[in-house]
């Protein structure tokens, strides 16, 4: 110590540096200097092509690992199969104890985790210590609880099996926790692959699994890059893929797994709006921006990267924000006096630099933090003004500490701008007017909304996106369903192949000759192509004709469904229920006629047809009942905030009905969807379309608004492609008898990453309530939005 | 006698002249407490000072302390002892080793009764005497008495007057009355500097804290101060964040720099670093100096001394090794 030194600091009042001690981490790294191995079946497997692990601050080599090849993945799957068997043989209580042990052990090693994470990723020790690791620990504690109550809370559901999980480099350990905790709590076995940039904490975690005595094969961790990831997604015995990463790779995974029966959870990119109204606490909103785009160097999928600010306060916000930005400190990630560390590597640094340079070339005005270390992967916090909706930088995800600024005049315009994106991950709303905040929150298409806050996370609250930000939730009850499947699924048998019937004559049914039209936008519509299709009974006798739908009919139907969506979705649940009950009432009045039609078309017995109509009426009633009863939850995370998990509708949903039970099949799909506020484009049973076309007369006299249900008849295999590729369609359900159509549905859905639900050509008995879970249909008709509402006023 | 430095008479900035009562500014105040709490929580985690930096920062804090005694049993001898501690706040050998042998506390803060004693005890130094005033701590004496009390303290040699506001004006949102009151106090102060104690613990909400701060500044307060130390809640980082943000707002509106004084309950060296980080981050280095930052405290100094000794010797210290104030 020198007296002059103190005296000098007394004048400058500088912070100096306060380095976190890394000696424990170094010891750990040294003990692995021969290279990190794969953790498979409780053993350490050394195989594959070697790659190096860098510290992005200075290029220091932290260690080396090997990329798992096909042989390694096969080995992991074999181990997982054994692990799955052991794991499912345990009681809920026993599984819960293991998760609890993991949580405890991470907690005991929290600082080592934090230091390793910081070294590996370049993020600040403050964040790994105060955010990443504690949030991950909480995730295991919370899901230890889920493991405990699994059988009680999810009676009709069971584990999926072996789950493949691929995670990114931005929150290596937190993402591991988000993936593994719910998966094993639900009784699955996992194979997880961390990003090749950041494997360290996954290795330490595997060591903790050994210490906790997790049965061999339940948790398998393999190292490698995208090639290894591809091997996981393609493996036939892996039944579920959970992926967090870019939208581009997410789409690729969707495409490559199409038709395999694998279920997917995709947490993808974002370009989340950060909306500041003129009645916000501006100083706090500015801090919110710091927590949002300058959290984790902006390498956050849900970062509020698009600032939307009301015109009246725009200048004030930019001035305050610039002042605040200039207080930020960049420096060594292990220095406890800094705000931001380095981005993850040179590639990412170049990507950010190029995007920002292009924006400036396009006319953006740039404001950047002045002080910045000259070596290492640092990127300065950046504000870009003079950018507009048409600027590339406003539309593309940057994944760096770069904020774009746009202004708006009214709440409606704020919503419009917020939703003017292919993404829909998160949104931040700042207003001290609760009426404003709670009015705007449901209007924004995103899976998470933070009111007067930013980047709040908790294990109890679902996280996940709308639109091209992906689907599925992580966290909370909503997140558990991503790792469960209905029990009946494993008992299903393939649907009957549809046999072509040759026309032999005309059925004598004492009716005037009729050709049913389609039903689009509340009007009976002739097919655009002006061709018809025969409806024949099994003996080949003509029962009637229906329009042969084409591309253009689908286009019109989607158009109609989309324009009807907003007001139908906004209508009171009570009103929707009344209309649905009224539909049931009107069907009931004409039940004999509908039963007869079923007999005429399918040749079934009058008794069976009667049962189908009765079951249909009951089902309609059921969904009338659920309209105002399938409600969300209120999560209570451990902070002064609630998170309202709303069940929101998805939008316009396309549906392909099964061939059998033409009335019940139609009702079973369309009713849950419209009960929850969606609109529908429904393609009825191909062979027996008349039950659906008869039904539009019922719709017409039941006060259903135009466009809520649109019926297009025709060839399933012709129509499915147009639906799947339609970028304005929000979801597509395929219950066709033909397995191929399930694959097409998934494969072609990637344009806008619409949510798909397919039967993979398996038949469901719609009469059997064990095979027709209303809750399942309601869940597919909704997506969960978590609206975080912090509170507190009294000092 | 060693030459003692204080900076209090040496204001680098222009004294706050106050403004008209601008109720528009009050209407525009929004405070989101929950968000403020989240920000405050990271004030102490985003920054740290270790070793020499910590020692320097703590020494700086010493120069900002309004060494205070406000007890019913204060006596002349007790106040004299305190004044001597203000002159020699840290053991001299430590200060010499740290290279800053001449520092003093920012001021001495006493009741009117003790102003004369303190002024006399501090003769030959630049350490100002601050008097709590206007019917401290409740402020419910007649206005004429309160004004007379200020004048009497100024006459007795007090250079700083810590006034208390009438809390009911805030709770009933009677901004005109609050403004008039503080303005009258300011006039009574003359050249003495006015610190407006808004008694945050009795204002119920953060919006009230913000608004009372803003009115005080409009009415001419040189400093705004959190608490009397007699309320159930003392100073904390949350109210500090609000008040400091208002000071920044006022600065942006008028160009006047206002000082800040947290008081009550600050007794640990570690705690005061949090306040210092807050001042530096939210306003800047100028607000780490005693002309714009004061700390109302008594036992804090002892803890700082022990930390300084640890820094110098590498050994943990004990309270009895340092002279009491």
Can you offer a commentary on this structure?
The complex is a heterodimer of chains A (795) and B (325). By secondary structure, chain A is of the alpha/beta class. In chain A, 42% of the residues lie in helices and 19% in strands. In chain A, the strands form 10 sheets. A 10-stranded mixed β-sheet of chain A has the order 13-14-15-12-11-17-18-37-30-29, sandwiched between helices. By secondary structure, chain B is α/β, with parallel strands linked by helices. Chain B has a single domain, classed as Alpha-Beta Barrel (TIM Barrel), CATH 3.20.20.70. In chain B, 46% of the residues lie in helices and 10% in strands. Chain B has an 8-stranded parallel β-sheet. The longest helix of chain B is centred in the C-terminal third of the chain and has 18 residues. The two termini of chain B are 20 Å apart.
Write the layout of secondary structure elements.
The complex is a heterodimer of chains A (795) and B (325).
Chain A: H1 3-12, H2 23-31, E1 38-40, E2 43-45, E3 49-54, E4 61-67, H3 70-88, H4 92-108, H5 110-121, H6 125-153, E5 157-159, E6 162-166, H7 172-185, E7 189-193, H8 200-212, E8 219-221, H9 226-234, E9 240-244, H10 247-257, E10 263-267, E11 273-276, H11 282-293, E12 306-310, H12 311-325, H13 346-361, E13 365-368, E14 382-385, H14 392-395, E15 402-408, H15 411-419, E16 423-424, E17 426-430, H16 434-440, E18 448-451, E19 466-467, E20 470-471, H17 476-480, E21 484-486, E22 493-494, E23 505-506, E24 515-516, E25 518-520, E26 523-525, E27 532-536, E28 541-547, H18 551-570, H19 573-589, H20 591-602, H21 606-626, E29 633-635, E30 641-649, E31 652-656, H22 662-675, E32 679-683, H23 690-700, E33 709-711, H24 716-725, E34 731-734, H25 739-747, E35 755-758, E36 762-763, H26 774-780, E37 782-790
Parallel strand pairs in A: 6-7, 6-9, 7-8, 9-10, 11-12, 11-17, 12-15, 14-15, 17-18, 18-37, 23-28, 24-28, 31-32, 31-34, 32-33, 34-35
Antiparallel strand pairs in A: 1-2, 3-4, 5-21, 10-20, 13-14, 16-19, 22-36, 25-26, 27-28, 29-30, 30-37
Helix pairs in contact in A: 4-6, 4-8, 5-6, 6-7, 11-12, 19-21, 20-21, 21-22, 22-26, 24-25
Chain B: H1 23-27, H2 33-46, H3 51-64, E1 65-68, H4 76-87, H5 92-98, E2 107-110, H6 115-121, E3 129-132, H7 143-155, E4 160-164, H8 167-171, H9 175-189, E5 193-197, H10 206-218, E6 223-225, H11 237-254, E7 259-261, H12 269-282, E8 295-297, H13 300-313
Parallel strand pairs in B: 1-2, 1-8, 2-3, 3-4, 4-5, 5-6, 6-7
Helix pairs in contact in B: 2-11, 3-12, 3-13, 7-9, 9-10, 10-11, 11-12
């Amino acid at each position: 110590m020198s007296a002059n030194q103190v005296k000098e600091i007394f004048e400058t009042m500088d912070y100096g540096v306060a380095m976190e001690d890394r000696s424990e981490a170094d010891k750990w790294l040294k003990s692995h200097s021969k290279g990190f191995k794969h953790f498979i079946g409780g053993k350490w497997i050394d195989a594959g092509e070697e790659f190096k692990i860098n510290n992005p601050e200075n290029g220091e080599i932290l260690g080396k690992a090997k990329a798992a090849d096909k042989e390694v993945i096969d080995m992991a799957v074999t181990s997982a199969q054994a692990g799955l068997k052991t794991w499912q043989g345990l009681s809920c209580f026993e599984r819960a104890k293991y998760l609890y042990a993991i949580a405890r052990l991470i907690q005991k090693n929290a600082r080592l985790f934090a230091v390793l994470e910081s070294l590996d990723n370049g993020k600040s020790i403050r964040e790994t210590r105060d955010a990443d690791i504690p949030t991950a620990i909480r995730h295991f504690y919370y899901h230890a609880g889920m493991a405990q109550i699994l059988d009680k809370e999810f009676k009709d559901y069971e584990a999926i099996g072996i789950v493949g999980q691929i995670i990114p480099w931005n929150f290596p350990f937190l993402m591991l926790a988000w993936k593994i905790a719910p998966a094993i709590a639900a009784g699955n076995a996992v194979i997880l692959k961390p990003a090749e940039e950041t494997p360290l904490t996954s290795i330490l975690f595997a060591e903790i699994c050994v210490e906790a005595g997790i049965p061999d094969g339940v948790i398998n961790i393999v190292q490698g890059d995208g090639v290894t990831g591809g091997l996981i997604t393609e493996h036939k015995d892996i039944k579920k893929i959970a992926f967090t990463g870019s939208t581009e790779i997410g789409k690729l995974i969707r495409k490559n797994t199409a038709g395999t029966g694998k279920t997917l959870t995709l947490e993808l990119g974002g370009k989340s709006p950060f909306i500041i109204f003129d009645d916000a606490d501006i100083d706090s909103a500015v801090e919110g921006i710091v927590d949002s785009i300058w959290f984790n160097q902006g390498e956050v999928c849900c970062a509020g990267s698009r600032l939307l600010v009301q015109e009246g306060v725009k200048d004030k916000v930019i001035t305050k924000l610039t002042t605040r930005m200039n207080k930020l400190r960049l420096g060594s990630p292990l220095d406890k006096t800094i705000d931001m560390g380095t981005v993850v590597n040179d590639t990412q640094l170049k990507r950010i630099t190029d995007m920002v340079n292009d924006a400036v070339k396009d006319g953006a005005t740039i404001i950047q933090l002045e002080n910045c270390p000259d070596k290492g992967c640092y990127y300065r916090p950046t504000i870009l003004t003079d950018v507009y909706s048409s600027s590339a930088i406003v539309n593309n995800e940057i994944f760096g500490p770069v904020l774009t600024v746009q202004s708006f005049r009214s709440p409606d315009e704020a919503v419009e701008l917020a939703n003017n994106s292919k993404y829909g991950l998160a949104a931040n709303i700042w207003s001290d007017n609760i009426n404003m905040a709670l009015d705007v929150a449901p209007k924004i298409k995103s899976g998470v909304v933070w009111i007067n806050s930013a980047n709040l996370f908790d294990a109890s609250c679902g996280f996940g996106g709308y639109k091209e930000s992906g689907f599925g939730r992580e966290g909370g009850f909503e997140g558990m369903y991503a790792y469960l499947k209905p029990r009946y699924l494993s008992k299903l048998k393939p649907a009957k192949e549809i046999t072509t019937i040759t026309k032999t004559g005309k059925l004598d049914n004492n009716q005037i000759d009729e050709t049913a039209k389609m039903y689009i936008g509340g009007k009976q519509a002739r097919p655009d192509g002006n061709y018809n299709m025969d409806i024949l009974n099994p003996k080949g006798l003509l029962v009637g004709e229906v329009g042969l739908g084409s591309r253009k009919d689908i286009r019109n139907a989607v158009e109609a469904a989309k324009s009807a969506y907003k007001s139908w979705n906004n209508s009171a649940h009570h009103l929707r229920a009344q209309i649905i009950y009224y539909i049931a009432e009107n069907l009931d009045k004409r039940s004999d006629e509908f039963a007869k039609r079923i007999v005429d078309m399918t040749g079934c017995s009058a008794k069976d047809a009667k049962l189908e109509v009765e079951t249909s009426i009951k089902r309609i009633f059921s969904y009338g009942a659920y309209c105002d009863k399938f409600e969300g939850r209120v999560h209570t995370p451990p902070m002064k905030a609630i998170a309202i998990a709303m069940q929101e509708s998805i939008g316009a949903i396309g549906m392909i009905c099964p061939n059998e039970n033409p009335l019940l099949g139609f009702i079973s799909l369309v009713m849950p969807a419209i009960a929850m506020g969606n609109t529908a484009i429904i393609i009825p049973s191909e062979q027996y379309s008349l039950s659906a076309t008869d039904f539009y007369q019922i719709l017409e006299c039941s006060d259903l608004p135009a466009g809520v249900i649109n019926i297009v008849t025709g060839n399933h295999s012709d129509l499915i492609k147009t639906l799947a590729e339609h970028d304005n369609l929000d979801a597509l359900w395929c219950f066709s008898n033909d397995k191929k159509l399930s694959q097409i549905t998934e494969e072609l859905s990637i344009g806008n990453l619409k949510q798909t639900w397919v039967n993979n050509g398996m038949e469901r008995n719609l009469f059997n309530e064990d095979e027709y879970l209303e809750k399942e249909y309601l869940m597919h008709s909704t997506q969960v939005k978590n609206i975080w509402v912090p509170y507190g006023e009294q000092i | 006698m060693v030459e003692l430095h204080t900076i209090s008479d040496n204001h680098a900035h222009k004294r706050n002249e106050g403004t008209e009562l601008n109720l528009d500014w009050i209407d525009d105040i929004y405070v989101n407490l929950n968000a403020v709490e989240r920000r405050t929580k990271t004030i102490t985690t985003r920054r740290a000072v270790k070793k020499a930096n910590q020692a320097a920062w703590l020494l700086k804090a010493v120069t900002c302390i309004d060494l205070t005694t406000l007890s019913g049993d204060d006596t002349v001898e007790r106040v004299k002892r305190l004044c001597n501690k203000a002159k020699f706040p840290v053991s001299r050998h430590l200060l010499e080793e740290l290279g800053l042998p001449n520092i003093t506390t920012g001021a001495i803060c006493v009741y009117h009764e003790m102003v004369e004693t303190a002024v006399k005890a501090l003769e030959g130094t630049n350490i100002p005497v601050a008097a709590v005033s206007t019917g401290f701590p409740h402020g419910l004496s007649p206005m004429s008495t309160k004004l007379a009390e200020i004048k009497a303290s100024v006459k007795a040699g007090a250079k700083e007057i810590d006034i208390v506001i009438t809390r009911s004006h805030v709770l009933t949102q009677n901004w005109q009355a609050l403004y008039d009151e503080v303005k009258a106090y300011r006039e009574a102060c003359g050249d003495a500097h006015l610190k407006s104690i808004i008694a945050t613990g009795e204002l119920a909400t953060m919006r009230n804290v913000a608004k009372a701060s803003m009115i005080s500044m409009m009415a001419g307060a040189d400093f705004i101060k959190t608490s009397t130390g007699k309320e159930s809640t003392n100073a904390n980082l949350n109210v500090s964040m609000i008040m400091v943000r208002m000071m920044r707002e006022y600065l942006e509106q008028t160009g006047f720099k206002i000082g800040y004084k947290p008081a009550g309950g600050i007794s640990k060296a570690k705690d005061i670093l949090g306040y210092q980080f807050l001042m530096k981050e939210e306003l800047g280095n100028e607000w780490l100096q005693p002309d714009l930052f004061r700390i109302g405290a008594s036992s804090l100094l002892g803890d700082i001394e022990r930390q300084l000794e640890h820094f110098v010797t590498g050994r943990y210290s004990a309270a009895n090794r340092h002279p009491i104030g």
